[in-house]
Queue: 2 jobs
Job 1
Amino acid sequence: MATSTRRTLPGYRCTECGWTAVKWVGRCGECQAWGTVLEAGAAPAGPATKATVVSAPALPLPEVSAAAAARSATGVGEFDRVLGGGLVPGAVILLAGEPGVGKSTLLLDVAARTARSGGRVLYVTGEESAGQVRLRAERIGALEQDVLLAAETDLGAVLAHLDAAEPSLVMIDSIQTIASAQVEGAPGGVGQVREVSSALIQAAKTRGLPMVLVGHVTKDGSVAGPRIVEHLVDVVCQFEGDQHSQLRLLRALKNRFGSVDEVGCFQLVDAGIESVSDPSGLFLSHDAQAVPGTCPTITIDGKRPLPAEIQALVAPSALSNPRRATSGVDGSRVAMLLAVLHRRVGLPVAADDIYVSTVGGARVTEPAADVALALALASARADRPVRSGWAAVGEVALSGAVRPASAISQRVAEAARLGFTDLIVPASTDVSRLPRSVRVHAVASVAEVVDLALPRD
């Protein structure tokens, strides 16, 4: 008599990405996370869900109405820019950032502006007491009658508040502090965060209610909690900034309703947080006299051209191993450019201390800032300032050649708007197609750049 064997599903599952295995392993084979593979229990393989009655018939794509996805502006211009124009009904946004960066302040500002435009906002705080949130709202001028505040950490109570308040916008601060009584474990655990996120996302989708979830970040700057939360939400935003600087940047790491190439600029002040539509004044110094070791550049952050000023200081070293200190730029990039300047231009810097920094706490990471960085180093070493009103754009290769850069037209337009008179660009640039608002100098090598932008006495 033949016997039938039943195939079983793997008994171990990764709590971060859902990867399965037939035996326990210490490291997930998919996301490479340690200690996340837990026993899930073997279950018979095969279809577990049967066909049911559909809620609505399938429609041809041209007949589907787009009115349900209409955006509503929050009143915070930079926040709307990153979201793609505003909030979409039923959209769930995960806002992540380090403690103290200003996430709660930003959300209170958005809540107050939404209430002033006729909406009702439910703000659920799990980290702070209602009194602490009230004091912050009073400080930033966000005391509005239609901003409803609830201090809750139980998922059931939060869902009950959604039914009672009937808001037009919900904010949860933060997702790691809310816990469900149906799941074992402390708040913030993998199982709790997954259950709470799923329940809140389902509530937002069924009600057509936009919702903002505040999340923590890990030491390496990534969003804390299981990765499945990032897959479930519609938008993932990263709010970043240095605690010693007033500048804050909002980036979209994922956006189902718009582009992820936008970046929002904010300034943290005593009265709260302000949108900065023109952040050029934060990244450029305004010295009346030209100073050696300084060169501006125009970077592209997403789709947005942003100015940055790179400063360098070269001083004789009394140490056997000269110091190399950087702030706002990549230290390995500086070391490479020093080698190029030494070999291709003949600039002796091996026995000097080198200090490189940016103005206003800006972070310059794109290779198109290489020419400006090389000019700042050469200017500091020669003790001669770069020509007044000049900026530089281009990537420097190890051969000393200046390589092409993207979005040259946008950089030229931004340089003209900021008042620069001359811009150095790579020689491969089609100068005839660029606007004539500034004088464009096409160069082929870093040696040519130094000779052109550093006038000799």
Note: The radius of gyration is 27 Å.
Job 2
Amino acid sequence: MSNLDRDPGLLLVEEDAPPARRIDVLTPRDVPLGGPRAMTVRRTLPQRERSLIGAWCFVDHYGPDDVSLSGGMRVDGHPHTSLQTVTWMFEGEVEHRDTLGTVLTIRPGEVNLMTSGSGIAHSEYSTPSTTRLHGAQLWIALPEDQRSGQRTFQNYAAPQVRIGDADVRVFLGDLADQRSPVHTWTPTLGAEIVLPPHSRLELEVDPTFEHGVLVDAGPVWVDGELGEPAHLLYRAPLAAPLAFETRESGARLLLIGGEPLGESIVMWWNFIGRSHEEIVSFRDDWQAEVARHAAATSAAIQTGDAEAFPTEGFGEFPSTWTRVLPAPELPSVRLRARR
């Protein structure tokens, strides 16, 4: 998914943050995905209080939306650098198309993980048969030694297993004797957990990981801290089980985690880099491809002969793309690194 925030720029990180509680509750902000009938996402990462959970650097949560009212998801071709995108659906279907040549419909219970390397582009459109759209889009920052690697795409249907009273799908990493084959470049966890009413679940988790709990439906208590729907609850590395509890209603959540990245990143729009200058370079490269593609598309309209469009650094644009998203203007001040 593209970050279509009209002002994707500066989130200043405090140099000396106060000591974290066992659980910190991060509340979302609403971000429209462009246009007067746009669907709106709830963004909980990044924000002023926290930029990263392990290598997870971006969390958007959306729906359930009536597509007849919201218009569904219509995100034209857009770029990514130095990251992996993770798509997880609760309801509905989305067509993913990228500059590797991948064309695939994303369905509930399946994870799509796209690795950008130094640059990739993709589009996402809800399918005509989708009436309700509900899911999450997350990003994982690539470590320095892998962020200029190859573009890749992986899809995995995570099996549902019963752990205590809960239904669990582990789509990234390892949890409760379940292992996902999907490859990430940093130690990473991703799982969907569905809890019935009046239940309690304790999970042994990696004590070196930071963990985040995105509440889709709830409420749910995490280590005794209340999490309402759309909240993201953060726990620092801790040698203790992670405990979940429900009361009158059940809950559904996404559990994410990973080893602290240990690197500073600069993140703006759909780009992750290591310096302000690198982000400027990414933007310039993308804008040049946008201009070239617009000229090629105009010529194709006149001749009626649309073809795939090769780029210098973002792969080959599919022939079905009639437009791609230009980057917004950069802020007037330098972008700061996040730790």
Note: The two ends are 23 Å apart (CA to CA).
